[in-house]
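Issue: ligand-bound run for S-adenosyl-L-homocysteine - logging full I/O for the record.

Environment: standard queue, default settings, no custom constraints.

Inputs:
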Amino acid sequence: MDSKTDKINLMNFDRKALAEWFAARGEKPFRAQQLLKWVYQQGVDDFDAMTNLSKALRDSLKQDAEVRGLKVAADQKSTDGSRKWLFELEDGNRIESVYIPEAERATLCISSQVGCALNCSFCSTAQQGFNRNLTAAEIIGQLWMASRLLAEDDRLPVSNVVFMGMGEPLLNFDNVMTAVSLMQDDFAYALSKRRVTLSTAGVVPGLKRLAEVSDISLALSLHAPDDALRNELVPLNIKYHIDEVLQACKAYVGEGRRRVTIEYVMLDGVNDSDGHARALAKRLRHVPAKINLIPFNPFPRARYQRSSTQRIERFRDILHNAGIVTITRRTRGDDIDAACGQLAGDFTDRTRRRERLAVEVTGDFS
Ligand code: SAH
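Outputs:
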């Protein structure tokens, strides 16, 4: 799986694209369904094992194509059952995915980009800067690898996927949508729209496009009730203000029973006062929303601290009393740095941003 080839990786295709690819080779389009079942439902990457394809077809596939997963660079298991994988990509970049089992479901948190361009002040991925978009194969490959490795270990299979790892999914729209299509496809993972959640910092044009092509669940990283504070925490807010972002989220979830999940990281003394909670409730009055409070997860050189448990409880009570369903996200995988905002990965630092950061921090300009 680790040597570079010129073969086309079929994991870059959703069912429609795969059917077209087969058709262009003079094959029946239903071959796409057969192939998807082998690859995603059986975890098979070897064409020879695909016994309902003719020998001639298998041989021709082997010539031109491959099913290429990701290389595991590290596999860490937490005492609480969660697990973090560091995957190495063909160009040496590294990304992370986290598996979070609960009583009746198991969530995989996946990455959509190597690094991130948004520069949120409380996020460790931001420190890397942006390197590149992941291909569709690299996105769905995280789920494919996790599913295979979990089956080997006899663990609960992934039932939910969240785009809450590294990167901004709406800034890698097409590849994310190809991967989502495979997640939802009955011949692949067959996950319902409720079980796939895209989390965004609020890329308004992306939200509008998403509404046209998808019905998956939506989470918005809000983190502040007013524009001045949000500009500091999520600089993308300078471009797309809270009102516009909330309007786009509202349009996305529509008039039905669906709600947008509002993510709110609890930063001690920054966005966690009673006044912030009241302002947040007011701001969300006409938005069908539920709130996830995320205790801040520290990382090296972070300039924030986590709000106290009592503060988070008080903040939650205010929102609750305002009639908004609010839960506090439990921190999982503490012992393996697998929590939100701690996914650092590693990449070939083309912009040398990390070195520049190190210089700023140490003052060493030599
Ligand atoms: N770019 C997307 C998805 C990646 S971040 C987005 O902004 O939603 C996934 C979630 O983790 C976001 O809500 C993000 O704000 C949160 N997060 C980032 N850093 C964090 C930290 N250090 N502690 C807690 N949550 C953090």
